[in-house]
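Encode chain A's predicted structure.
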Amino acid sequence: MTERRREISAVVIARIGGVLYLVIIVLGLFGEAFVRDKLIVSGNAAATAENIGSFEWLWRLGTAGNLVHLVCAVGLTLIFYILLRVVSRDLALLVVFFDLISIGIEAASKLSLVAGLFPLSNAEYLKAFEPAQLHALAYLSIRQHGYGFGISLVFFGCACLIIGYLIFRSGFLPKAIGVLMQLAGLAYLTNSFALLLAPAFANRIFPTILVPAFIGEASLCLWLIAKGVNEEKWKHWASAQFCRSSAISI
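Encoded structure for chain A:
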């Protein structure tokens, strides 16, 4: 009976993880594609400031959505640990460390999006600056967010590589999804290091370089929602781990 409950709970937990992943993907795409890409005019601080000033509510909504997706990411990190620790507790724990660092850095980077609104307000103290200076300050904050987000993806890319390996090894999730998640990790790492080391090259490969990342994450998300995990194989791993733990304790 205990094993049966464990088996069912693994499938339920996997599907909850899939729903959380879907929320993360939707809110992430909304903030990036439907807010920042629409309002930010690359290289033009004045036009960007005008857009944000005209659609401040949308800017704030996108930022709030990003924070919700980070909260969901914390929950998803726990779910991945629960599911994948039966394969390798140490590697699953390493995923947790990489994910939490990534989430922390990304959360801190969102402060730059909020800070970008300050120079565009009507506060009395801002009258000491020229409009062009205020626009530049707002634009610099937004640029800082881009680099902070890129740095967070270095750690998330490492997490994707390990998740992909654990999925490939597990057998209770498709090996193809494991490979796709590893490709996603490589895509994130390539994009982030290109942004830091060769910005001009990063601009040429973006957003194409992130297509494998979207495919890998979307595939895992949809599989978790539709199928969860293979019950028998997850149970086999869990039982084997229990036996190993019992042997060590003896």
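The chain is about 85% helix and 0% strand.
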